[in-house]
Design brief:
Keywords: Membrane, Transmembrane, Transmembrane helix, Transport. By secondary structure, this protein is an all-alpha fold. 66% of the residues lie in helices and 0% in strands. The N terminus and C terminus are likely disordered.
Length: 541
């Protein structure tokens, strides 16, 4: 392996840029298509309080740790870990932490770009009036025609390239002229657009019903499953385990108040999720409910149908999906950055060349996911497409493993003096809580999350008649009331079972266990089927 290029790869020029970049990294599609559903199901305002507690007591310490590692070392996660390992005189095996995080970021970016391609296409579909007068079969057919028709996969590939070019063009401009300038404009712009759309939804919808779903306290709906849902969502929605926080920490100015900024980011992410939930339920029909829908069936089937009933619907639909594009675009920019930073530190290559090479690799890897929904849809290993396996390995193994290793390394391998220096000035109470959370709480909780995610994701594969060796035990677990983690993000709906009925859902089971309008086929040919809800589980976009 070449000697790492020991030159700092860039930094922000304004202390507030870290906040805007971090907001762009944490506000993802889960805020739109997952959080509102969970809040309405698990007690409204009570779930929000529970979610905030999970953020502050479990995931916030890990966010601070990742950012502090980058800020202390002034490098990306790989070289930052290398420096800490040398300082603490620990085994070089700990270098796997940085490398696995880069791999996780690469895989996440590869299929995040596929989601971005769908959202980008919908901006134009909405503006051109393709949803005018559309019902459920028509909206499902539009989604199926874009994503899963093997005869039109080249069109989908075109949207994929278009979206990636938007990301790579900004990244190639550099940390200051590209990343900083873009995020300082786009992230506030996206928040303003969300406020405008929220005002429109409140004006034409029923904001009282939305408040009852999202903000009103319903303690009777709280259960053990509510805590599980809050933990899963808190862990998977913040971009942890991919080196994003480390690279953003390394870019901070000396005047950035890191811990205070991260706390503000967490609160902003929650506020955006609440606004999204209020907006969605305010415009919902049939008594202010989308009947438990979430994931792609909510965003790309039900939402366009509902929005088409509003005045100037073409403009409204285009604006909504422009917001979705901006959210996925800022997420992609942040996830790309640790990969580019690692490549530059490893090879010493200029930024433009690094972005070009990484972008080409991401495009090729993304094709594996893209084609899994159409041309390769019937090519399954163990009952799952290649995309599903990439997603399962990333969400169930890589990201939890990186989080656990970081917690163990900082909690047990660093001296108290070194960890205190890395953390910086902090109240004694915060430092004490941080230390014991990293040592004991976080490794146990994240290990449980990863095991649950993997076990029940594998169990979900068995619902399609898969006869793989693992099916018997997970299937038995599900039959006894076990549930797939609530961090499911799906294209449409699961197909009906052999009796023609969808499985029942008891709350935190994924939408793949529920029936929605998009589960119907738009035709008799396989190429005309909308993507299925259990095709996507991941919650980190």
């Amino acid at each position: 392996m070449p000697t790492p290029y020991q030159t700092h790869i860039g930094s922000f020029t304004r202390k507030s840029t870290f906040f805007w970049a971090a907001v762009g990294a944490t506000v993802g599609l889960a805020n739109l298509w997952q959080f509102p559903y969970l809040a309405s199901l698990h007690g409204g305002g009570m779930f929000i309080l529970l979610y905030l507690a999970c953020l502050l007591l479990v995931t916030l310490p890990l966010m601070v740790t990742e950012a502090a590692i980058g800020c202390y070392a002034r490098h990306g996660i790989v070289l930052a870990m290398d420096g800490l390992i040398r300082s603490a005189k620990q085994s070089r095996a700990w270098m796997a932490v940085g490398r696995l995080s880069i791999l996780a970021a690469f895989l996440v970016l590869s299929f995040t770009a596929v989601f971005g391609a769908v959202a980008l296409a919908y901006v134009f579909f909405g503006a051109l009036g393709r949803f005018s007068g559309a019902g459920e079969p028509e909206a499902t057919g539009i989604l199926a025609g874009l994503v899963s028709d093997p005869r039109e996969y080249r069109v989908f590939m075109g949207w994929h390239v278009f979206f990636l070019l938007l990301v790579l063009w900004v990244s190639a401009q550099g940390v200051v002229k590209g990343l900083e300038r873009a995020l300082r404009v786009v992230v506030p712009g996206a928040l303003v657009l969300m406020l405008v759309l929220f005002a429109l939804a409140a004006w034409h919808g029923r904001i009282d019903g939305a408040i009852n779903h999202i903000l009103a306290m319903h303690p009777e709906d709280l259960s053990w499953e509510s805590l599980k849902a809050a933990l899963f969502h808190a862990f998977f929605t913040l971009g942890l385990g991919m080196g994003v926080w480390a690279i953003l920490g390394s870019y901070t100015t000396p005047h950035t108040r890191l811990k205070r900024s991260i706390l503000a980011v967490v609160l902003m992410d929650t506020l955006v999720a609440i606004l999204a939930g209020l907006m969605i339920f305010a415009i919902a029909t049939d008594g202010n409910s989308f009947d438990g829908e979430r994931g792609f069936s909510l965003l790309f089937v039900s939402m366009p149908i509902t929005l088409a009933q509003l005045p100037a619907s073409q403009f409204v639909i285009a604006a909504v999906f422009l917001l979705v594009v901006l959210i996925v675009w800022t997420t992609s920019l942040n996830v790309l950055e640790p990969i580019v930073g690692w490549f530059r530190e490893w090879t010493g290559a200029p930024r433009s060349l690094s972005v070009l090479l990484i972008g080409l690799a991401v495009w090729l890897a993304g094709l594996a996911s893209l084609l899994s929904f159409n041309v390769w849809a019937e090519q399954r290993v163990g009952g799952a497409t290649l995309f599903r396996w990439l997603e399962l390995v990333t969400g169930g193994l890589l990201i939890p493993l990186v989080a656990i290793l970081i917690a163990l390394f900082t909690g047990w391998c660093l001296t108290r003096h070194l960890s205190g220096t890395m953390l910086g000035a902090a109240p004694r109470l915060f430092a004490g809580i941080w230390f014991w959370v990293m040592r004991l709480v976080l490794p146990i909780v994240v290990a449980w999350i990863g095991i649950q995610y993997t076990a029940f994701s594998l169990a979900n594969l068995c619902s399609n008649g898969n006869v793989a060796a693992w099916c018997e035990q997970p299937a038995a677990m599900l039959s006894e009331g076990g549930e797939v983690p609530p961090n499911d993000r799906s294209f449409a709906a699961t197909p009906a079972d052999s009796e023609g009925e969808a499985a029942e859902s008891d709350g935190t089971a994924p939408a793949s266990d529920q029936k929605s309008p998009a589960m119907e086929e738009s035709g008799g040919k396989s190429g005309e089927k909308a993507p299925k809800q259990n095709d996507i589980l991941y919650d980190s976009v």
